[in-house]
Each structure stands twice: as C-alpha cells, then as structure tokens.
Amino acid sequence: MTIEQRLRTYILDSFLFTDDESVLDNDDSFLEKGIIDSTGIMEMVSFLEQEFGIQVDDEDMVPENLDSVSRIIAFVSRKRALV
Amino acid sequence: MATTLLDLLASSLRRRPHAEALVCGQRRVSYLALWNASMTVAACLRRRGLQPGDRVALLLEPSPEYVAGYYGVLAAGGMAVALNPLAKEWELAAWLRHSGARWLLCAGRTRQCEALAGECPQLDMTELGLWRRADTALSRPPTTAEPDAPAAIIYTSGTTGAPKGVTLSHRNLVSNVTAVMRYLQLTPADRVMHVLPFCYSYGNSVLHTHLAAGATVIIEPGLMYPHRLLERMAEERATGFSGVPATYALLLARTRLDAYPLDSLRYLTQAGGPMPLRDILLVREQLPWAAFYVMYGQTEATARLSYLPPALLLEKPGSVGVAIADTELAVCDPDGRRLPPGEEGQVCARGPGVMLGYWQDPEATRQVLHNGWLWTGDLGHMDEQGFLYLHGRASELIKVGAYRINPAEIEEVLLAMEGVAEVAAAGVPDPLLGQAIKVWLVPQPQARLQAQQVLAYCRRHLPIYKLPRQVVFTDALPRTASGKLRRHALMEAGTAGLED
Fold it and tell me: Domain A3-82, CATH 3.40.47.40 — does that match?
C-alpha cells in the first residue's frame, strides 16, 4: 500500500469510524473539519512514527506538516528521503 | 466597590486605557477598544429591545468578539449564556430553548447558525463585527445592575431533556474573580496564555480575573500543536498559564518545557480534576521558577473553591488546599453533620461564589443547595490544618480532559440508534485525559451491530469531546433488584470490561 492508502485507512478507521472513502478529502483540514482533536494528533504522530519509521520532532509538530492527508504525505515523504 | 464584572473592567480601563487587554493572533486590543466594542454591543441590544434579565446567547470561539459580546450583554442588563461552538445543533437548540434566549451573538451566518434559526425561530441573530467602529469615544454603560441579579448561565452536564444551567449572579462572579486575583497576586504586568474554552467556568474565570487585574489575555485556540503554543508563550512573554491535567499531560508528552525561553512565566494553575503528582513534579522540574497552583472548584461555585499555596505543594501532596477568601469548606456526612479531620464525607461549600441555582429547575437546585451550603458531589476529607483532599465523586459525571460529561447524554443518543436495546456509559481511566468514555451496549435480538458502526453513529450525533473511546457488547447490564443501573460496577470493571 502507498503512504496515502495507509494513512487514509488509519484516519478513516480511527477517527471517522468508517470505510467510506468519500467522507475524507485529502485536502480537508483536520482542525477546521473537526476530524482530529489535540489527543488525536498525539495518537496520529505515534502512528506515523511506527508505521513509517520516521521520527517526528518538536518542530515538526506544526499544522503545515500535519493538518491534512496531503500535508502528511508530503511530510512523511520528506522525512523518509532524509533517512 | 465593584458590583459587576463591568465595574472591574471599567477600573482596568481607567488605570491603563491603552494597555493590551487581549491578544489574538495578530490582533492586539486595548482596554479602550474592548470597552468601546462592549458598549457598541450593549447599545445595539438595547436598541433591539433587550429588557433587564433577558438572556443573550453567545456562540463564539474564544476571541475579542466573545469578550466584547459578554461584557456588552452585561452592560445592556442582559444575562450572558455562553454556548460551546463545538456542540451539535440539537444540543445548542436544547440550551437555547431552555434558557429562553431571544438573542444569539455569532461570528457569521454559518451552517450551524442557519440550522439553529430553523430550530429556534424566535432567535434574533446578531453577527459581531465591531472592531471597525471601536474608536476613542468613552461611553457609560447604559444600566446598573443589582448585585444579586442573575448575570450569566453556564450549561453544564445535563441531558437534552433536562439541561442544567448554572445561574450566577453579579456578586458570584465578582467575589470569585476578586478572590482568585488576590491569591494569584495578579497585576497589570501579567500576561496569561489562555487555551481553555471560554464558555465553561475555568476558562470564564481565567478570562475575567485577568481583565479585572488590568492584565493581558493572550487567546490561543487550544493545544493541537504544543510546540507552536510554547513558542507563542515565549514570544508573547507570558507570565501565566492555566490548564487542566490533560493540558499539562499533552504539553509534557512530547516536549520539554525547558527547551523554550519561558523565563517570564510567574505562575501556572491547574484545576479540573486530580493531576498526577508525577506530572506536577515534571512541570516544576522543567520550570522551577514558576509557582504551581493546584486549585479546586465547581461551576456551581462560579469556578474556584480552594487553592493550595505553591510553597506547600510538596508538604501537602495530593491536597487541593484551603478555601479561597470569604468561603467556607466542610466535609459532611449524609445528614449534614460536619465530620472530624481524616474522615471521608461529601465536600460542602458556603460563600459568595455559590450559585443562585439551576436555571428554572428548583428540584435540581434543592438537591444541591441546602441552607446556603452547596453539596458538591465530591468526596474527600480534611486534615488537621483544614487542607482538603479529594477522593472521587459521589456523582457519576465523566471527566474527560476539560469537560464534564453526564453519561446519560451518551446513553440518550445511543438509545435512539437502531438495533440498540440497552446502553450504559461510564468513565474509565485514561493516561492522557484522566478519564475516557466507555460504552456497554446490549443489542436487540438479531441486531448485527459492530463497534465501528456504533462509533460512527456517535461521531454523527455527538461532539468530538463526547465520543466514546471504547464500545463493548454485553448480554445484560448490571442492575440493582429494582432495575437501576449499577454504574459504579461498570466503572470498577473499568478497562477490563464485562466481556473479557
């Protein structure tokens, strides 16, 4: 599975409790759409670290990296390129 | 003598009209601008026919508009009913109907507002866009209020059938604010970083105490990104920060607080349930120069009932301290007799912060107010020196992060789901949030329910902070001989669950 598929499956399953792909657009803002709250972000960061073998540092924890599926895909890809 | 919160704001205005009252993103709002905006709201409400005592709902995120709206309502002689913008429309409609609010102050005609307009046709909706008109003309509030007149309603954890609206007088608000200002030793030099919801008692208290002190309130929209928040605190040279245990747990989870230049921090406050001593010690170790205040209170007591002087944190670990000024605390047996030190009973409180009652609910009010004493529903004991220790709650409210949730709210929603025969909700321990909601569900015969379906249903019908974390299926719920749910048996089963 691609990063996108793994990530979407995780978010649909863990936060939206559905397998209906149509409810989540890759550019939906998690904050604005109320998809994830502050504890959800913590869980998601742990998921990213385990699933993709990256380390998310303090300064990575910003909406530019984490606030939508598209942003996370870009962030994870960047991080993995550095490894 | 200040009679209302507005008098306290006016005194801050007189002392330093051009000082920063509010900082919100790039916006900086002086006391003068805040005052003028509040008076604009007041004048507008009066023009539209507001009578003293009329309820005005606020459906606004923490923002300068919220603050101007709140003080504007008070200045017009109305009662402020702040609603949580995260709530679902049916919850908002229930509170609006229950409070009888005729006005709703909102940020714009959102989808949420349109839905409410349909549900509550009597509502006059006013969008707040005040700041362009806020210039230098100083005006007087159009009315003065009696100290014991009701000033605000805070909706706590009732059900839709019976919302619980804690009704607070001007005296309640002013006395609590004044007591907190005194023990935190707030001055106009203070700058508090405010991340709590304004619509509940703790956030309401942090807001008004700092404005009454002539200090600056830096409004931040929550804790999604702890790193950003800490950077912002450093940039803004914050002197104070207030949180619930989950706030600190989130900050400590992935971050070292001493990695940020937070040397301006003078005090940290914590309320909203017991914070693990380990976390308190971590905060102190990383920010040793900031005084850490453990506090205790209740919406029914406006906000604060007790605080532990920071110097005694290690001497009295686990204590929520002593009563705030002018307030008396007692631990009582079920007949109302005071218990000696060391014995467990229900915590009762008396003082100027104790609410007028629940809005239009004399029966619920009678259950908690007796002869001027508030029965908090919290269990605890006092030591020989009068320091209070809490043991838990006599009631069944679930404490999730900053929120108090009545399990009946969750049950009410799930009972309407197809295939559900019986349901019970209770709080179970959660390392980050203190408690999380767990649901036990008895399906109807032949119903094929899955946990994901139940959670998806909750997601559609409940706000994000009320979502259960766990759903388990069971054949029957534990009940007493008379059929009453034994919720404590569920809570004790806790994380183990009945099914395994």
Answer: no
